[in-house]
Amino acid sequence: MTDLVRVWIVPVDVPPDTAARCRDVLDDGERARAAAFLSERDQQRFTVAHGALRILAARELETQPATLTWAPGRHGKPQLAPPWSWLHTSISHSGDLVAVAISTGRPVGADIQTLVPSLDTVGLAARFFPPGEDGYVAAGHDASARADRFACLWARKEAVVKAAGGRLWPNLKIAVHGHDVIGCAEPSGPHRVADVRAPAGFRAAVALTGAAPFAVEVAGWPAGGTA
């Protein structure tokens, strides 16, 4: 049976009732972390991301969002505490969007990236990406195409690293262009990655630990209101 990953694309600017619900389900630690941001926009982004994660995970588990707890796993990645540790989650945010991913049985990593045509993508790719990928970025016909290629590769790398629970910098040299199964450098091991459909101006990816194939379902949230 093919594993299934569900990915939700969430706007930071959710309706007021949804924003209030996201705030209500956070635990004390998450509220403190949100309040520590100096910018109200950053507070909103954190609150919506973590609130949406709680609401969507709770819906999968048929429990209340506020009852869920996460704890650092083997490599430091937050994972759901028992009795829900079989459900794996990941969140990412960039610009005005948040990505939430949930899978059962296998650790998951998701990443979403805003396209930034003004970014020196050629220089960054030459510095951080492996041979071949820097040339792929540089071969884009204009700044927008180069930004698109760069964001796609970066999202795939981050998704793999998040699934593995490792650190990004030691893994930027892993080759992800044209590959479905990626060998993570730290911690080592195979991970399957797939691109995720994202709104215009964004690129996204999701990865699961292990080489086995998986299916992806993508949806928006909230769909016409709160979940």
Largest sheet at a glance? 4 strands, mixed
CATH superfamily: 4'-phosphopantetheinyl transferase domain
CATH topology: Ribosomal Protein L22, Chain A
Coarse morphology: globular
Account of the 3D structure:
It contains six helices and ten strands; from the N terminus they run βαααβββββαααββββ. A hairpin with a 2-residue loop joins strand 4 (87-94) and strand 5 (97-104). The strands form three sheets. The protein has a four-stranded mixed beta sheet, covered by helices on one side. Strands 6-9-8-7 form a four-stranded antiparallel beta sheet. The chain has helices spanning 16-25, 28-35, 40-61, 121-128, 133-138, 143-164, and strands spanning 3-11, 70-72, 78-80, 87-94, 97-104, 108-114, 181-185, 188-196, 202-209, 214-220. The protein has a single domain (3-220), classed as Alpha-Beta Complex (Ribosomal Protein L22, Chain A). Helix 2 packs antiparallel against helix 3. The radius of gyration is 17 Å and the shape is globular. The protein is 33% helix and 30% strand. With 227 residues, the chain is an alpha+beta fold. The longest helix is centred in the N-terminal third of the chain and has 22 residues, at 40-61.
